Protein backbone atom coordinates (compact mmCIF):
# COMPACT_ATOMS: atom_id res chain seq x y z
CA UNK A 1 0.00 0.00 0.00
CA UNK A 2 1.41 3.34 -1.00
CA UNK A 3 0.08 6.65 0.22
CA UNK A 4 0.29 10.23 -0.92
CA UNK A 5 -1.05 13.13 1.08
CA UNK A 6 -1.86 16.02 -1.24
CA UNK A 7 -0.65 19.21 0.40
CA UNK A 8 -1.56 22.84 0.21
CA UNK A 9 1.36 25.18 0.49
CA UNK A 10 2.32 25.49 4.18
CA UNK A 11 -0.86 23.83 5.40
CA UNK A 12 -2.55 20.54 6.20
CA UNK A 13 -3.18 17.97 3.46
CA UNK A 14 -6.38 18.61 1.53
CA UNK A 15 -6.82 14.96 0.54
CA UNK A 16 -5.08 11.61 0.64
CA UNK A 17 -4.77 8.84 -1.90
CA UNK A 18 -3.86 5.21 -1.32
CA UNK A 19 -2.87 2.45 -3.69
CA UNK A 20 -4.07 -0.82 -2.20
CA UNK A 21 -2.41 -4.01 -3.42
CA UNK A 22 -4.97 -6.70 -2.79
CA UNK A 23 -2.52 -9.27 -4.12
CA UNK A 24 -1.16 -9.27 -0.55
CA UNK A 25 -4.07 -11.54 0.43
CA UNK A 26 -3.07 -15.03 1.59
CA UNK A 27 -5.18 -16.66 -1.14
CA UNK A 28 -3.66 -14.58 -3.94
CA UNK A 29 -1.20 -16.51 -6.11
CA UNK A 30 1.13 -13.60 -6.83
CA UNK A 31 2.57 -11.92 -3.73
CA UNK A 32 2.69 -14.80 -1.25
CA UNK A 33 1.86 -12.57 1.71
CA UNK A 34 -0.47 -13.34 4.59
CA UNK A 35 -3.04 -10.54 4.57
CA UNK A 36 -6.64 -11.53 5.18
CA UNK A 37 -9.93 -9.83 4.47
CA UNK A 38 -9.81 -8.75 8.12
CA UNK A 39 -6.35 -7.27 7.60
CA UNK A 40 -7.65 -5.03 4.81
CA UNK A 41 -10.58 -4.00 7.02
CA UNK A 42 -8.17 -3.03 9.81
CA UNK A 43 -5.95 -1.10 7.38
CA UNK A 44 -8.95 0.75 5.94
CA UNK A 45 -10.14 1.64 9.45
CA UNK A 46 -6.70 3.08 10.23
CA UNK A 47 -6.59 4.97 6.94
CA UNK A 48 -10.05 6.37 7.59
CA UNK A 49 -8.99 7.66 11.02
CA UNK A 50 -5.80 9.16 9.61
CA UNK A 51 -7.74 10.88 6.80
CA UNK A 52 -10.19 12.30 9.36
CA UNK A 53 -7.31 13.71 11.42
CA UNK A 54 -5.31 15.13 8.53
CA UNK A 55 -7.64 16.11 5.71
CA UNK A 56 -11.28 16.17 6.82
CA UNK A 57 -11.75 12.53 5.86
CA UNK A 58 -11.10 13.06 2.14
CA UNK A 59 -9.57 9.91 0.71
CA UNK A 60 -9.19 8.25 -2.68
CA UNK A 61 -8.32 4.58 -3.21
CA UNK A 62 -6.68 3.07 -6.28
CA UNK A 63 -7.02 -0.65 -6.80
CA UNK A 64 -3.72 -2.42 -7.46
CA UNK A 65 -3.27 -6.14 -7.76
CA UNK A 66 -5.58 -8.88 -6.63
CA UNK A 67 -5.78 -11.95 -8.83
CA UNK A 68 -7.88 -14.30 -6.73
CA UNK A 69 -11.39 -13.06 -7.44
CA UNK A 70 -12.85 -14.46 -4.21
CA UNK A 71 -10.31 -12.78 -1.94
CA UNK A 72 -10.31 -9.60 -4.07
CA UNK A 73 -14.08 -9.13 -3.90
CA UNK A 74 -14.33 -9.86 -0.17
CA UNK A 75 -11.36 -7.60 0.69
CA UNK A 76 -12.52 -4.66 -1.44
CA UNK A 77 -16.03 -4.97 0.02
CA UNK A 78 -14.64 -5.03 3.57
CA UNK A 79 -12.50 -1.97 2.81
CA UNK A 80 -15.68 -0.07 1.95
CA UNK A 81 -17.45 -1.49 5.01
CA UNK A 82 -14.72 0.05 7.17
CA UNK A 83 -15.24 3.45 5.55
CA UNK A 84 -19.01 3.17 5.95
CA UNK A 85 -18.70 2.25 9.66
CA UNK A 86 -20.24 -1.14 8.97
CA UNK A 87 -18.99 -4.30 10.69
CA UNK A 88 -16.48 -6.50 8.93
CA UNK A 89 -17.68 -9.71 7.32
CA UNK A 90 -14.16 -11.14 7.31
CA UNK A 91 -15.15 -14.04 9.57
CA UNK A 92 -17.35 -15.31 6.73
CA UNK A 93 -14.46 -15.26 4.23
CA UNK A 94 -11.24 -15.87 6.14
CA UNK A 95 -10.20 -19.40 7.02
CA UNK A 96 -7.45 -19.39 9.68
CA UNK A 97 -6.10 -22.64 8.21
CA UNK A 98 -4.81 -20.70 5.17
CA UNK A 99 -2.38 -18.71 7.31
CA UNK A 100 0.99 -19.55 8.68
CA UNK A 101 1.03 -16.21 10.53
CA UNK A 102 -1.54 -13.40 10.86
CA UNK A 103 0.33 -10.15 10.10
CA UNK A 104 -2.00 -7.80 11.99
CA UNK A 105 0.45 -7.17 14.84
CA UNK A 106 3.30 -6.42 12.42
CA UNK A 107 1.08 -4.14 10.33
CA UNK A 108 0.03 -2.16 13.40
CA UNK A 109 3.68 -1.82 14.42
CA UNK A 110 4.60 -0.56 10.93
CA UNK A 111 1.76 1.97 10.95
CA UNK A 112 2.82 3.26 14.36
CA UNK A 113 6.43 3.52 13.19
CA UNK A 114 5.38 5.60 10.16
CA UNK A 115 3.13 7.78 12.30
CA UNK A 116 6.02 8.36 14.72
CA UNK A 117 8.50 9.14 11.92
CA UNK A 118 6.12 11.71 10.47
CA UNK A 119 4.98 13.08 13.86
CA UNK A 120 1.37 12.06 13.22
Counting H and I runs of at least 4 residues, what is the number of helices? 4
User: Level of helix content?
Assistant: 40-55%
- Give start-end ranges of low-pLDDT stretches: 1-9
What's the β-strand tally? 3
Shape: globular
As a percent range, the share of strand residues is: 15-25%
Number of domains: 1
Strand arrangement within the widest β-sheet reads 1-2-3
Structure, explained:
With 120 residues, the protein is of the alpha+beta class. The chain has one domain (2-117). It is built from four helices and three strands; from the N terminus they run ββαβααα. It has a three-stranded mixed beta sheet. Strand 1 (2-7) and strand 2 form a beta hairpin. The protein is globular, with a radius of gyration of 15 Å. The relative contact order is 0.19.
Write a concise keyword list for the protein shown above:
single chain; 120 residues; 4 helices; 43% helix; alpha+beta; Ureohydrolase_dom_sf; 3 strands; His_deacetylse_dom; histone deacetylase activity; disordered N terminus
Helices and strands in order:
Layout: E1 2-7, E2 13-21, H1 37-55, E3 59-64, H2 69-83, H3 90-93, H4 104-117
Parallel strand pairs: 2-3
Antiparallel strand pairs: 1-2
Quick overview:
One of its GO terms (biological process) is epigenetic regulation of gene expression. The protein is α+β, with helices and mostly antiparallel strands and 120 residues long. It is built from four helices and three strands.
